[in-house]
Structures are given as structure tokens and as C-alpha cells.
Amino acid sequence: MTPTITPQLAEAAARVRQAAETIKQAQIDFLADLIRLKTYTGQEGPAVERTLAEMRACGFADVRTDSAGNALGAVGSGRFSLLYDAHLDENEIADEADWPYPPLQPTVANGKLYGLGASDCKGGVASIVYGARLAAALNLTAACTITVKGATLEEDAEGFAMRHLIERDGFPRPDAVLLAEATDLTLRRGHRGRCEVKVRMRGKAAHASTPELGDNAILKMRPVLDALEAMTASLPADPVLGRGTQVVTMIASPHTPNSVPGWCEATIDRRLTPGETPESVVGQISAAVAGLGAEVSLPVQPVTSWTGLDLSGPAFFPGWLLPEDHPLLAAGKLTCAALWGQAPRVDVWKFSTNGTYSAGAAGIPTLGFGPMEEKYVHTPEDQVDLAKLLKGAMFYALFPLAYSLIHGES
User: Fold this and answer.
1) How much is the pLDDT for 410?
2) The whole model's pTM is what?
3) Is there a catalytic annotation at residue 89?
4) What is the pLDDT of residues 151-171, one digit of tens each?
5) 229 catalytic, yes or no?
6) Which of 107, 110, 316, 349 could form a disulfide with 195, with the two C-beta atoms 3.0–4.6 Å apart?
7) Where do the domains of the chain lie, and which CATH numbers do they carry?
8) Which one is catalytic: 33, 66, 89, 373?
9) Strands 112-114 and 71-75
10) Closest by CA position to 324, among listed 178, 189, 192, 187
């Protein structure tokens, strides 16, 4: 049930709707500038600097980067700490010829802004920066201190940069995290996790002209692949997030075409339900291939930030689910109802986000809201509807007041 909209919140929502028009063009211009910058994972420096400049122009306090290169700025000074998070790195272009418009040339057509990263997740960055600007300008930060984070490293290692910020750089643990990923102006309260698993078979190398002297590791992998496929129907399931999945995504062997391969390695993409651990996943797969001679391991995800910092860690990203009756979800519903007259749809993401750390590992209440649409993420049709982009800023402007009211303060 959505809490009652108080007169104070209704009046604030009206002011947000009216004031939003004053930031519309600046928000679009900022997003267009971000799209012009190619910022693959580990190369986010130019977009970080551009975001810091925008934060300064918007009057944010404590504008800076952390050692992992995240862009940080703050508004408000209340006792509740909110972290607004959206990432600046983007998926790599596969074939530019597939794009209707040049991916690094922001193009406005039919009320939409097209370009690489528009839907994942630079549109989210523009939403949280300008949402926080509106909140500060309209005195709506209420009992909250809002830190806006233009995040790095999400595409390759979601949550790693946030983990570093909190656990190593000493950023105070926030009371709540809001993720401005693609939700099409609805709310997301969780998603499955993911991990990478390596399964290796060893054989004996020999010259290909005398295969009888070797032991072909590729052929030995066949029953292992069958065993991996057979276990998929019995993977853990969650009543909301569904069943986990497991897919062999790569097969590797020595790059010696005239030799019998002495090893063969399969890479598995495993999607996780909340509560699964590295030990439980490796244990399940080891049991499934027991007796076949396979070696099962969880690899290290190599990650280096644009600042040169090594953040490598286990390639394990936990799933999470915010309870239906959680106050954070209630605040999100209340914000949407006050702004647009109805409670939003609540769902879960199909893909993974920085929530793998904030909620999955650290247990920080986490909620998703963004103006972008999931169907355009990682596609040549990458885009964001400009009317929805402005609504994204409106949500992030009003949310602190709704959150404070839910917690009995304003």
C-alpha cells in the first residue's frame, strides 16, 4: 500500500513539476556531452571530469573523485545518508554500421536522444545530477544528505568500485542506495546475481601427426558439458526472481592447431538467486562433474580503474531482493504517486547492477529507478526519451522528502 500523500508532499511535488522546465535544456546538454565521450570500462576519466564539472556548476558540495575514480558530489546535510548511483562506463560498440545514428554523436529525433550509453547508464547520471540540483534549489533535501555518484567499472565488474569506496576509502555506509539504471520510470527491487566459473579438463599434449601418443582434452570435455547441461533444471529458484541459469559461454584450448590439446577449459555464466555463495556454486558444479576428472574454480575478475588502481577480485556478484514492505520501496511509491498521481509498477531487473554489492554483499537497502528503457540497453538503438529523462530528475528531486516523511521526519 502506498502511504498517504501529505499536503507538504503534494505542494513540493507541484513545485518540482514547475521547476523542472528550468533545467530541461541543461540536463539534455550535459547528457549529450557525456555521450560524445567514449568511456569503456577503465577509460571513464573524461566522463568523470565532465561530471565533476557539472556538479560544480550545479553548486554541489565536496565535489571530488575517490581513489577508484568515481565522481562524487553532495547536497543537503540531513541525518539520513542517501547514495544516488549511476555508472559512466558503457558497453563497447560491436559494429558501428548497425547504428541508426553515429554512436558518439548525440542525435535528437522524435523526442529522443540517441547515442552510446544513453540508456546504460548516462541517462541515469543526468537524472541523478539534475535531480539533486533541483532538490537543493527547492530546499527538498529534508532530513537527507545526498551523495551523487558517477560510477566507474560497472559493465565489467558491477559493485567493485562501490565496494572500494565504502570498504577501502572509508565512505560512510549510506542508509539507502538508489540505482538510476533503466526501469522506464517504474521501480526495481532486486535481480539475480551472477558469477563466472571455470571448468578445466587436462589431457596429454602430442603432435597432431601422432594423436595416439596424446590424450585429447577437448574430447574429454564432452561428458563434462553434458553433465553441466543436465544440472540446469535443478538450480536454486526464488519465487520472485525465478530459477537460476547456467550457460557454457566459451571453450578454450591451446592455440596450437598441429598439436593434440593438453587442456581444455569451459567458461560458465551462472545466474544466482539470493543466498548463493561462491562455495555453494563451486560445490554444486563439482558434484555434477564428480568422477570425470574436471577441475572447477571461481576465477579472479581483473579490473583496473582509470586511475590505475587494481580492484581485481573474485568474479562473484550476489543477487538481492528488497522486501515488499520495506520503507525504501514505500518511499519510492510515494514519490511517484505524488508526482504523477499513481503508484508505479514494481518489478525486478533481468540484468545485474551495482546492487550486487550494495544490497547483495553489504546488505544496504537498495532500490532502482531510471527513465531509460531496458529494451534499448546494449543495442544499436541506444536511446532515452527526453520527456522521461526530465521525469527522472523530478523523481530524484522529490525522493528525499518522501523518504524523510516515511521515516517520520521532514
Assistant:
1) 74
2) 0.95
3) yes
4) 999 999 999 999 999 999 999
5) no
6) 316
7) 7-191+319-406 (3.40.630.10), 194-301 (3.30.70.360)
8) 89
9) unpaired
10) 189
